[in-house]
Amino acid sequence: MVRGRVIALSVTDVRFPTSSDQHGSDAMHTDPDYSAAYVVIETDATDGLKGYGLTFTLGKGTEVVVCAVKALAVHIVDREFEEIVGDFRRFYRQLTSDGQLRWIGPEKGVVHLATAAILNAVWDLWAKQEGKPLWKLLVDMDPQKLLSCIDFRYITDALTEEEAYDMLKHGKLGQKEREEQMLKNGYPAYTTSCAWLGYSDQQLKELCVKALKDGWTRFKVKVGADLPDDIRRCKLVREMIGPDNLLMLDANQRWDVQEAIDWVSKLAEFKPLWIEEPTSPDDILGHATISKALAPLGIGIATGEQCHNRVMFKQFLQAKALHYLQIDSCRLGSVNENLSVLLMAKKFQIPVCPHAGGVGLCELVQHLILFDYISVSASLENRMCEYVDHLHEHFKYPVTIKKAAYMPPQVFRAGCWIFN
Amino acid sequence: MVRGRVIALSVTDVRFPTSSDQHGSDAMHTDPDYSAAYVVIETDATDGLKGYGLTFTLGKGTEVVVCAVKALAVHIVDREFEEIVGDFRRFYRQLTSDGQLRWIGPEKGVVHLATAAILNAVWDLWAKQEGKPLWKLLVDMDPQKLLSCIDFRYITDALTEEEAYDMLKHGKLGQKEREEQMLKNGYPAYTTSCAWLGYSDQQLKELCVKALKDGWTRFKVKVGADLPDDIRRCKLVREMIGPDNLLMLDANQRWDVQEAIDWVSKLAEFKPLWIEEPTSPDDILGHATISKALAPLGIGIATGEQCHNRVMFKQFLQAKALHYLQIDSCRLGSVNENLSVLLMAKKFQIPVCPHAGGVGLCELVQHLILFDYISVSASLENRMCEYVDHLHEHFKYPVTIKKAAYMPPQVFRAGCWIFN
């Protein structure tokens, strides 16, 4: 089915002025302009299909990612598409292990974001060529073929290819029923739209009222800039949503280790399910310390949106440093690397609760979490996918949310995400 | 003394075709073209002094770092120089915590390399304005002033500002004698020039003979591509240098955890002091596992040249994952971040053995290691600085090596590094 030779890759710097209304504002990112490096690949096949991929950015620096995409393009242009996805592990490693480019990574920061944008476009085109939405391409894929997309380098001490194969094989049991369940009810979501840090109390209240009316039962609040302010806002949101709905907190890396423990302890009375990104995204051992200290308060640790590769996730799992694993569809090396993380999470029995929002992240990550449920985790316990209500109007096929759940995209030939 | 307003920052993409002769070749970087993003800052002061800084790259991708430097330039151009170095911690955090740019890092990969290039130029200019080589500026600096250059964010669970102050205060004892000792004997070095992976056995032999004649007693060999090949090369070098000289091995991240243990065990008979970068630079816990397994063989772990920030170094130290800490002058956020790592290494009693080579790394890092000995560690036990004999001819003030030791640069008004 796979066809064509890649004849062109183009990349665009797309920016939205979200900072003007404080959408997306948090303790460390006070003025984000949601943006993307947006990649389109074309082949010489006569079907006219193109692959669209993006990586999410916050405004300034998008041009740096665009520059990195151009540097990596040499690895994809003029290649048979069959050669790329037919030995996808090899192609993944070519992008991530280029003997010169890896020095400015490796597998982290700008080059890895660029890698994600390119690979997201490859997966989009592959799904379109197969005439399926991406989640369905993954769900239908033979375990051996799925494994051939994953680079196991540096993670074999936590997950071998053989273990991964057994998991995927086991995941085939009951797959059909779970797929039908997803098509009927969708995948549970939570909302971050109500409580950005820059919003006024009045805005918070109004947004909570509206969200409750729309059926939302899980709410995330940004914290970390000012403790009295956090106490007031958490109290307000808890009052608005009542004692039975879920409340999550997100500090966006604001604290040092001890500071995180002290601060979050003072918010424990509002019964948060988790504290997200309490400290540096690189601080595995710090997260483990915080996790241990907050466990008696019943507060879990969530992190991952800035966890830069599978080697870091491996260690977060090994060190028992998180309770909720938040994959990102653009921070990691696209579907390929996310597959390895989903499988490691399954092995360590940690629920995956993806990061979304920004621009295009909801559109992207829904495919991964649908696959995770249908073919890997087979569980909805303690699981939910983030949802943020911004910028969907710019997509040709925006996500569909019904009763606070992601409804699986079913558009024939729309792999995933396309700007209007 | 500090003066002027920064009126311009320029950045150049400088490349050397080192790959043509396999200089610098290792198991993961088979064809490096030693390159740099080279920054020059100018002020409106009438002294005509400029600040020169660089970050090292391997060829492709230098243009991406150049792009990132341009994105960061907004933070320095039009600023009073006194405002920059007068509250250097604040300036450091401005560069590394830009609310939009930090998304594509934070403090890692391309943006952090760009940060290093800019800050290296700032330190160069500062040293020149003070009329001292950089190491001397640092050695003479008041402990409180030194601390004000360091961002302690995310490391206070391992090192508080108070502890750091006490260390620096204590480091003043005997400082004068150590400075005189350095001026007389220099800082001990080891050579990596003899055994790049792409060199033939004949080349290896000839280079060993020459190095021994020049007084070298410590030698590093690249390994990791092929085990029989490694055994042959290690045997050859050990025979050439004899049983009493030091042999170090460097795998440049080639292996998975168990693979590293198995492979290095088979090289133990050649009595290497350390194995460098056995696996992913991100794998703290993996290094700890390898360290534990190789300890009975008397082989230590060295790593750091791709350790991307102080948070990672903190954890390597906390997890007892390394025995030799290899700072890099361009991978970390310049002198500022390296100061925090030198102090953490002192606290954890781990010797610092800097990474050098490439282009300009020897010229840069000599200042840091001289400061480390004179003002922090006060010890030469198990310590040595890497030296590689390439591309020094392109510098106006290249390093001076005498009897396998770095001689402290003393050029008045030459802070550190200037291309011809």
Automatic annotation (TrEMBL), chains A, B:
A Pfam family it matches: MR_MLE_C
Question: Ranges for the Mandelate racemase/muconate lactonizing enzyme C-terminal domain?
Answer: 201-297
Query: In Gene Ontology terms, what is a biological process of this protein?
Result: amino acid catabolic process
Metal-binding found in the keyword field: yes
Work out whether the entry's keyword set contains Magnesium: yes
Q: Which CDD domains match?
A: rTSbeta_L-fuconate_dehydratase
Q: What is its EC number?
A: 4.2.1.68
- Enzyme category, top tier: lyase
Query: Which stretches are transmembrane?
Result: none
Please give the InterPro entries that the UniProt record associates with this protein: Enolase-like_C_sf (IPR036849), Enolase-like_N (IPR029017), Enolase_C-like (IPR029065), L-fuconate_dehydratase (IPR034610), Mandel_Rmase/mucon_lact_enz_CS (IPR018110), Mandelate_racemase_C (IPR013342), Mandelate_racemase_N_dom (IPR013341), RHMD-like (IPR046945)
User: PROSITE patterns, alphabetically?
Assistant: MR_MLE_2 (PS00909)
Catalytic reaction list: L-fuconate = 2-dehydro-3-deoxy-L-fuconate + H2O
Its keywords, alphabetically, are:
Lyase, Magnesium, Metal-binding
Which terms does the record give in the GO molecular function aspect? L-fuconate dehydratase activity; magnesium ion binding
Entry cofactors: Mg(2+)
What PANTHER family does the record point to?
ENOLASE SUPERFAMILY, MANDELATE RACEMASE (PTHR13794), MITOCHONDRIAL ENOLASE SUPERFAMILY MEMBER 1 (PTHR13794:SF58)
Instruction: State the family it belongs to.
Output: Belongs to the mandelate racemase/muconate lactonizing enzyme family. ENOSF1 subfamily.
Record-given protein name: Mitochondrial enolase superfamily member 1
Protein source organism: Geotrypetes seraphini
**Lineage of the source organism?**
Eukaryota, Metazoa, Chordata, Craniata, Vertebrata
